[in-house]
Amino acid sequence: MKKIDLHIHTIKTQSDHDFNFSLSALKKYVEEQHLDAIAVTNHNLFSLEQYNQIVDELSGITTVFPGIEVNIGKKIGHLLVIANPSNTADFSERCKQIQDNVTSATDSVTVEQFMDILPNLSQYLLIPHMDKNPNVDIYTLSMLGDYISCGEVGSIKKFVYFQKDEKMPTPVYFSDYRPTENDPYPIRATYVDTEDISLASIKLCLQDKTKVSLSDENGNMCFQALPNLPLSTGLNVIMGGRSSGKSYTLNRLYDTYENVKYIKQFQLLEIDPSKAEQDFADRIAAKQSVITRDYFLPFSQIVDEIKDISISDDEKAIENYITSLIKHAEETERADAFSKCLLYSESEFLIDNQDGIKELIGAVEKLLDSQKYKELIERNISRASLISLLHDLIAQYQAEREQTLKKLWVNDLISDVKRGLQSRTAATRVSDVDFYQVQMNRVKVDKFVSVVKALQKDSVIHEKDIEGFIVQARKRKFSGAGELKNQSGKVLAFSSIFPLYTTDPYEFLQGLKSMPELSDADYYEYFAKVEHVILNRYGCEVSGGERAEFNLLQEINDAYQYDMLLIDEPESSFDNIFLRERVNHIIKDISQQLPVVIVTHNSTVGASIHPDFVVNTVRTIVGNTAQYDVYYGFPGSKELTNKAGEKIKNLDAILNCLEAGEVAYDERRREYEMLKN
């Protein structure tokens, strides 16, 4: 197995944070990490002079490949390009063209430009960012096609995911290191199963997932988590005596890796009981906000439509129409030539906005564009039929649009003529009123009132079971103006409009509109109060201790969004039965997706959970100085080993850390046997 790191920066560019490259630091990094090959991959440039200096300094220590990290594609993904050392001069000249095209961090070359600059891509190793920001876009990957056999990932979780998924390319995990004096050395690297460290051999290995791994001896079961500590890519348990460095080790892991979920000791216990219940409710409401928003989405759309309807304006329009009609009738006998013209009282054409047919065209286009459900759609409706339907709909839209434009032109003409006639006569003109729209507005308001009354009835709008707890979202009426004020989160008085809340929802909505402090997008929130509650397995609201249990389960479940989960002594806050029956299996499930590290001195967590890897932290006093060490190995190993190769018995470590020693363990076992018999 050869250890490689093909992503190292040695020149500060516009895409880098500030750093001062140190050749001696690079040399120490290569020696301490026992790297068999590295690549110099600066952003959008390659310095032949510096590369030769690095090769000379590291001669006999490691193989140094020339490379470049290119900004590529419209979305500016990063692509590593590694060349053969025998082709360095030609590679340098081609990299100058990339440097000329990319003069800032926001510049990039298109994939077409890239292929023109490097026409013979088969002689290079191309490694795009995949699941590591900034990702190379799908179009660029498809254009590069067969030249891509692997992808750089940003975490252990993603490396394991790529390895398990046959459809994904081979993952590689590199340091992205910028060697600087006195900075800690990274420990991210990839192992390839080859004896020959040539570019051709590495490319061949990267085409076969079975020849690529995170560790030398244990494949993808383990990875180097800290300089002195390997860990499993699954479930790890750290045990040890008091002040032996357990939490210190967790903290180092948290500081070393990004996107880590860390559940600290005592974090979930309630310190202020009087405030804890409200804080708990607020957290649940925040987590369930998407569910609430989705439930109220149709109603919010109704509110958006109703808020712009003015019944008083409609009534005023009808009153003006009737008044003008009566007056016009009274003046008929003395009408002049201008007022007798037919166009004087002509009504304009009603204009259809064509929203319906535009939605149909959009729906058919979505069916045609769908890639995810393409097979399902074409199994029921042929693509030819959909295209034919789209053509017919577009033709119909164009015909209707032509009629609409003609009506608009006629309406403009009628309007101009009417204005001219009205300016030349003293006769009263009958006011325009759209009776259809007036009646539709009344029907909409009546329907809105009935919907609100149904919405205000008590009911459960969502229910979900989470490990024996029931999460409920309930709706009910607001009980008073004070609750409306709390809902707004502002210092507002709702007492004047609250009487309308149940008696006249439409007028209540108009009252909300009169309050400029409220956003019209939030009006729907003031028609029903939503509360989120957690019930235990008996259907009762949870107690303080149960709230802490539920919070732990939620926190652990949230870890799926992270790349690593750290838990510090969960037994400090929870009883053993809860941990064994409700927590252990969730942690085991999560450890199938990402590395999990638990610190414990409890056998329920440490042994019953059946970890994949165990770590024993040890503190020894030498003179007046405390020294810390870590021993590690698999649960079935008879001995645990430290970095120096020193060993301790695994059984002794387990009994001392989890069972208070062998004597205490045997004594308790005898007592349990006596009680049993």
Strand content: 15-25%
- Count every helix, treating DSSP H or I runs of 4 or more residues as helices: 24
What is the CA-CA span between the terminal residues? 56 Å
Unreliable parts: none
| Strand line-up across the major sheet | 5-4-3-2-1-8-9
Find the structural class using helix and strand composition.
alpha/beta
Kindly state the mean pLDDT as a whole number?
86
Main sheet attributes: strand count, strand direction, barrel closure: 7 strands, mixed
What is the CA-atom radius of gyration, in angstroms?
36 Å
The proportion of residues forming helix, as a percent range, comes to: 40-55%
Structural account:
The protein has 677 residues and is of the alpha/beta class. Helix content is 44%, strand content 18%. The model has no long low-confidence stretch (mean pLDDT 86).
Summary, kept brief:
The protein has 677 residues and is α/β, with parallel strands linked by helices.
Features:
677 residues; alpha/beta; 7-stranded mixed beta sheet; 18% strand
